[in-house]
């Protein structure tokens, strides 16, 4: 059996590994660096399968409760930063970048626009609380998407 080519492996909205690496490299070039030259800002955010399933469940429930005039249509992901007030349970998140998920809807009068949705009839509030890398211990600090000089300074050991 013939192995699929790289382009055949790419899904409808996917990109190649090389494209992903280039996008990550472009971002990493813009982040602050510590005295050791390693990035100090968030390079990735991890969300577990259950959290993603919950998000999808909330969106599907919103879709069921939609009207023809106001139809739930997706999710927008905002970039955010915790600033000097990190979550109480994660003080190490101070000044770290993060992602915020907001559900969107389409108004039948302006079908090309995806409008942020905050008037919840089902419990999909703005979603956050992924694991930030760094500082999370679940980081893949040696990801092949990162050039060796761009890997975050992971100060924990493999056994932690």
Topology:
Layout: H1 6-9, H2 17-28, E1 44-46, H3 49-64, E2 70-81, E3 97-107, E4 110-116, E5 131-133
Antiparallel strand pairs: 1-5, 2-3, 3-4
Describe, in plain words, how this protein is organized in 3D:
The structure is a single chain. By secondary structure, the protein is of the alpha+beta class. Helices cover 20% and strands 22% of the residues. The protein has helices spanning 6-9, 17-28, 49-64, and strands spanning 44-46, 70-81, 97-107, 110-116, 131-133. The strands form 2 sheets. Strands 2-3-4 form a 3-stranded antiparallel sheet, with helices on one face. A two-stranded antiparallel sheet has the order 1-5. β3 (97-107) and β4 form a beta hairpin. The longest helix has 16 residues, at 49-64. It starts with 5 loop residues before the first helix and ends in a 27-residue tail after the last strand. 12% of the residues are buried. The model has no long low-confidence stretch (mean pLDDT 77).
In order across it, which strands form the biggest sheet? 2-3-4
**Percent strand:** 15-25%
Calculate the terminal CA-CA distance, rounded to whole Å.
42 Å
Q: What is the count of distinct domains? A: 1
Count of distinct strands: 5
What number is the mean pLDDT?
77
Which stretches of 5+ consecutive residues score pLDDT under 50?
none
Helix percent band: 10-25%
SSE topology string: HHEHEEEE
- What value does the Rg take, in angstroms? 19 Å
Q: What is the makeup of the main sheet? A: 3 strands, antiparallel
Assign the structural class, choosing from mainly alpha, mainly beta, alpha/beta, alpha+beta, or little secondary structure. Answer: alpha+beta
Helix run count: 3
């Amino acid at each position: 059996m013939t192995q699929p080519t790289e382009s055949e492996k790419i899904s409808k909205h996917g990109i190649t590994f090389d494209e992903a690496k280039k996008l990550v490299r472009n971002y990493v070039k813009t982040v602050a660096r510590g005295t050791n030259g390693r990035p100090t800002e968030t390079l990735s955010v991890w969300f577990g399968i259950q959290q993603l399933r919950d998000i999808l469940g909330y969106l599907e429930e919103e879709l069921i409760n939609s009207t023809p005039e106001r139809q739930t249509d997706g999710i927008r992901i905002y970039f955010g930063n915790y600033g000097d007030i990190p979550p109480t349970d994660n003080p190490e998140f101070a000044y770290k970048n993060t992602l915020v998920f907001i559900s969107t809807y389409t108004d039948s009068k302006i079908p090309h626009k995806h409008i942020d949705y905050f008037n919840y009839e089902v419990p999909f509030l703005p979603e956050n609380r992924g694991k930030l890398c760094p500082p999370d211990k679940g980081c893949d600090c040696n990801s092949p998407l990162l050039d060796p000089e761009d890997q975050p300074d992971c100060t924990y050991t493999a056994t932690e």
